[in-house]
């Protein structure tokens, strides 16, 4: 299996892997996949991030109120998100239950790191970002940095 290192989350598998427990597929999105969400994929991820537990394709389809989607469309998008590493799925009888592999916060952090990686001057980009955040957001950053230094 190939791994991508350098991620703040540690070594991340580049491809899908099959967990020894045959009813569960484990994957994580790589940085190249992070921004690769289409509009429908983002809508489905928003639904799954808002839920406490895993949902079936039928349950997800019911929660997409603004669209009239065929059940096969929802299943296809869920399968694609699983292959990309955004979802874990487990068997529940004949159906699959899907849940996010990472939190929305982890996804956004990966997007931010990807954007930072596109700059030629990381220091300048970080400085500009720090100047643009609000006072309360700057306090959050200071606390997070202090906690990292104390570890």
Q: Structural class of the secondary elements?
A: alpha+beta
Low-confidence stretches: 1-34
Number of helical elements:
7
Label the overall shape: elongated
Summarize this, please?
The chain has 151 residues and is of the alpha+beta class. The protein contains 7 helices and 7 strands; from the N terminus they run ββββααβααββααα.
Descriptive notes:
The protein has 151 residues and is α+β, with helices and mostly antiparallel strands. Helix content is 52%, strand content 19%. It contains seven helices and seven strands. The chain has helices at residues 31-34, 39-50, 57-63, 71-84, 104-117, 122-132, 135-150; strands spanning 3-7, 10-13, 17-18, 24-26, 55-56, 87-92, 95-100. The chain has a five-stranded antiparallel sheet. Mean pLDDT is 79; it is low at 1-34.
Short descriptors:
alpha+beta; 151 residues; five-stranded antiparallel sheet; two-stranded antiparallel sheet
Write the layout of secondary structure elements.
Elements (H helix, E strand, L loop, with lengths): L2 E5 L2 E4 L3 E2 L5 E3 L4 H4 L4 H12 L4 E2 H7 L7 H14 L2 E6 L2 E6 L3 H14 L4 H11 L2 H16 L1
Antiparallel strand pairs: 1-2, 3-4, 4-6, 5-7, 6-7
Helix pairs in contact: 3-4
